[in-house]
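User: Predict the structure for this protein chain, please.
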Amino acid sequence: MRNIRPYTVAIILAGGASTRFSAEKTKQKFDIAGISVLRRTLLAFDKCDAVDEIVLAYRTGEEDFAKECVADLNKKVSITEGGKCRAESARRAFECISCRECIVMIHDGARCLIEDNDIKAVALACYESGAASAASLITDTVKRISGGLIFDTLNREELV
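Assistant: Here is the predicted structure, written as structure tokens:
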């Protein structure tokens, strides 16, 4: 018997202003070896055979950049202007999905180092349990403070 997976949509949120990034342009517009961060993110999802459709929520005023980034992708692609906050951008992207019965994965457009096996692992976990999130164990020491004093060191093996 053939195993048929659910229709799977990747929503890529790229509507942020990158205010903590402290640069003249947003993170998604930075180039790595001649390819923008956002385009690299989109290419990762486009090449993944666990993804059927991509919806991009772009930053207000960056429609032309968004169109350049999705040009010649192989998957079904929709773009929409993002909202004033992440939740509103996600809502607008959900409205663009072509299929009403599907698995939806949401990814940050500025996180371009996502790998195919990670996308597939999250998709598979969604198929099996209904929801999933990618995460990695942290390597830095994390301290809990109160009133400016350290009172606890958190166990890294329990944090992602």
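Residues 1 and 125 are 21 Å apart (CA to CA).
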